[in-house]
Design brief:
Elements: E1 3-7, H1 11-24, H2 36-42, E2 54-63, E3 66-76, H3 77-83, E4 87-95, H4 99-115, E5 120-123, E6 135-138, H5 154-160, E7 165-176, H6 183-195, E8 198-202, H7 206-209, H8 213-223, H9 235-245, E9 254-259, E10 262-271, H10 274-280, H11 288-298, E11 301-309, H12 318-332, E12 337-339, E13 343-344, H13 348-355, E14 361-371
Parallel strand pairs: 4-5, 11-12
Antiparallel strand pairs: 1-2, 2-3, 3-4, 5-14, 6-14, 7-12, 7-13, 7-14, 8-9, 9-10, 10-11
Helix pairs in contact: 6-12, 10-11
């Protein structure tokens, strides 16, 4: 079997790139398709501002004239400068269970990276840690997440067989709305409230929430700068991120902590809409939107999307206070469980807060790396 790599440079190949995963995952029960309206914009430089600061390439692998795999290459120059690295990223790798196809795609990205002066490749990774990162290595039969990968197990072995090894893992935890909180959490919340320094903002409408979107994302830039793979969002990327999630965001599940007129902490939850996206097959029209909205209303799980506390206010219990408010509003909304966003295994502080609830790890995602020069 001879594998041919074609760079995506036409509308026809772009369409093939976008829709190939649905063919590969045709028999994958529980596979979460992308929302195609979002995917078409994400991979289009005309819509996605992240392309402006990166070298990129989209490629397809063909066997006997039929597309069998795809991959994206990214060189994020500003991130490399910030971290003093020469790293290329591979992302959105999809292929059938064929070692030759996987090898051809990964070798293509490695050659592409070497030609641009890079000395290592890491992935799967997108433009930032807000994009799906890592291959799932645990949790294959669990409810999928909108913000995470939904790969088949064999892709991990195919990647490792090409000389890639673990760089870092990301974890998600799940706990019940009725979780028994440690007594210390109650004391911490009372202490935060009694100081009267902070105000906890809760919202009932998107109109109320809208003025806080940019300050929230500015706090993300400030607090995430040391995390693996993160590069600060610019104004356009903030706008794109807000536009992607605001239509399905319920303001009741956003909590903001203010100190005078400054946002110093926040947490955002989103109803798990995986069931609706699966029924809609990723298409909003003609009736896909109905399935997605219906699944949001019927969801029993709240997925945490983002959260942060300004550095000088960490360790004072603000995350616990926000979490308790979120538990209360989630219970009123009828949710049964909460699943965390992806937490780096090295983020021992955040893991300790969650693990005090005796919450189990339900999913694990792995980012790989390979030295190429």
């Amino acid at each position: 079997m001879k594998t041919e790599i074609r760079i995506v440079n036409s509308r026809k190949l772009f369409t093939e790139f976008i829709h190939l995963p649905a063919k590969i995952h045709k028999d994958h029960e529980g596979w979460l398709p992308p929302v195609y309206a979002d995917d078409n914009k994400f991979f289009d430089p005309g819509f996605n501002n992240s392309f402006n600061s990166c070298d990129t390439v989209l490629a397809l692998a063909y066997n006997n004239g039929v597309a069998h795999g795809r991959i994206m290459g990214i060189i994020h120059h500003k991130y490399n400068e910030l971290k003093h690295e020469k790293t290329a990223r591979f992302g959105f790798l999809e292929c059938y269970d064929e070692s030759e196809t996987a090898s051809a795609l990964l070798r293509f990205i490695e050659k592409w990276a070497l030609e641009r002066g890079m000395n290592q490749v890491a992935g799967p990774y997108g433009f930032s840690d807000k994009d799906p990162q890592g291959f799932m290595i645990e949790g294959f039969h669990d409810i999928p997440l909108l913000s995470a990968s939904c790969n088949l197990p064999y892709i991990v072995e195919l990647t490792e067989n090409n000389g890639y090894s673990k760089l870092i893992d990301c974890l998600t935890y799940r706990f019940s709305i009725d979780v028994l909180l440690p007594e210390i959490y109650q004391r911490v919340q009372q202490r935060v409230i009694s100081t009267q320094r902070y105000r906890i903002l809760e919202f009932t409408s998107k109109k109320q929430l809208k003025p806080y979107v940019v300050p929230i994302l500015e706090l993300v830039n400030e607090t995430y700068h040391q995390l693996f793979g993160f590069y600060p969002l610019n104004k356009e990327e903030m706008k794109e991120f807000a536009n992607r999630y605001m239509p399905v965001l319920d303001p009741r599940h956003v909590k903001v902590v203010m100190l005078q007129n400054e946002v110093v902490a926040f947490v955002i939850g989103l109803a798990n809409m995986s069931e609706g996206i699966i029924k809609a097959k990723g298409k909003l029209f003609p009736f896909g939107w109905y399935h997605i909205i219906r699944s949001i209303k019927r969801a029993t799980q709240l997925d945490l999307m983002l959260g942060a506390v300004k550095s000088e206010h960490q360790g004072l219990g603000l995350e616990i206070t926000m979490g308790m408010h979120l538990l209360e509003s989630s219970k009123k909304a009828g949710f049964k469980t909460i699943e965390t966003h992806l937490i780096l295994e090295s983020n021992t502080r955040m893991r300790a807060v969650i693990e005090r609830l005796n919450a189990p790890v339900v999913k694990r995602f792995r980012v790989f790396q390979k030295t190429i020069a």
